[in-house]
């Protein structure tokens, strides 16, 4: 990603509604659907500035990788131990068949070889271990946000399903999320394209607006995996290496 994106992420990842509510949602997915063993061995690939590491640490001992050196230093400070440099799909620095949970959270869209990356991650999982995956969806929503974040693609749900099955995973869950806020987000993206004012949307809104958005998005913690979500801005999947 561009340097300004990492700088902005480091400033906002403890405050911005998208980060705060998303962490609560993913915490719920791990708790209810992944159900890792006690003291699980966990790996986050592409940890960015490390904003998910405290949440993941609730479920076990966390290791992490990050390609960008400045973000990696921030993540290492947050984790309290070194975060490894790694560039998907090369994961040769990690032991095979050793992890109960691998988290790949809004990373796959940055990787040229997404198929090879899913194969490589599967080989790191213990039999029965799970990959927690999030990606942006709806190619028609492509915007300046995707350009600034150096995305190669936005996915269709069917594409993730095919990639997962081809890589040998069982699919425990495959669901859109950020669904309750989908209508206004989609409208903003479409209006931006029509007016030529398509801009990255990472700024922190005012405190009252931020709180409302955090509350609305956060409601999905109790919905994902229980209520069918027909649409959304992103997709969350739990993919499991077969026993």
Structure, described:
Helix 2 packs parallel to helix 9. This protein has 9 helices and 6 strands; from the N terminus they run ααβαβαβαβααβααβ. The chain is α/β, with parallel strands linked by helices and 243 residues long. Helix 3 links the parallel strand 1 and strand 2. A 6-stranded mixed sheet has the order 2-1-3-4-6-5, sandwiched between helices. It is globular.
Q: What is the strand tally? A: 6
Approximate shape = globular
**Helix segment tally:** 9
What is the distance, rounded to the nearest whole angstrom, between the alpha carbons of the first and last residues?
36 Å
Which class do the helix and strand fractions yield?
alpha/beta
Rg over CA atoms:
17 Å
Query: The biggest beta sheet, please?
Result: 6 strands, mixed
Order of helices and strands: HHEHEHEHEHHEHHE
Order of strands in the sheet with most strands: 2-1-3-4-6-5
Query: What is the share of helical residues?
Result: 25-40%
Mean pLDDT: 93
How much β-strand is present in the residues?
15-25%
Low-confidence stretches are none
């Amino acid at each position: 990603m561009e340097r300004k994106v990492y700088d902005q992420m480091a400033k906002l990842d403890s405050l911005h509604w998208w980060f705060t509510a998303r962490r609560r949602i993913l915490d719920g997915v791990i708790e209810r659907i992944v159900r890792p063993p006690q003291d699980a061995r966990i790996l986050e690939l592409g940890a960015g500035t490390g904003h998910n590491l405290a949440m993941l640490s609730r479920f076990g001992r966390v290791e992490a990788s990050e390609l960008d050196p400045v973000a990696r230093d921030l993540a290492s400070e947050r984790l309290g131990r070194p975060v490894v440099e790694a560039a998907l799909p090369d994961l040769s620095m990690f032991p095979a068949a050793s992890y109960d949970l691998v988290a790949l959270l809004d990373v796959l869209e940055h990787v040229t070889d997404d198929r090879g990356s899913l194969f490589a991650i599967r080989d790191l999982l213990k039999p029965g271990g799970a990959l927690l995956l999030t990606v942006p969806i709806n190619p028609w929503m492509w915007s300046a946000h995707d350009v600034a974040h150096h995305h190669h693609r936005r996915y269709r749900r069917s594409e993730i399903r095919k990639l997962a099955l081809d890589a040998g995973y069982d699919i425990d869950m495959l669901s859109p999320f950020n669904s309750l806020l989908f209508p206004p987000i989609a409208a903003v993206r479409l209006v931006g394209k029509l007016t030529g004012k398509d801009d990255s949307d990472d700024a922190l809104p005012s405190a009252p607006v931020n709180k409302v958005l955090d509350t609305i998005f956060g409601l999905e913690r109790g919905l994902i995996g229980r209520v069918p979500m027909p649409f959304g801005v992103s997709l969350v999947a739990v993919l499991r290496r077969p026993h």
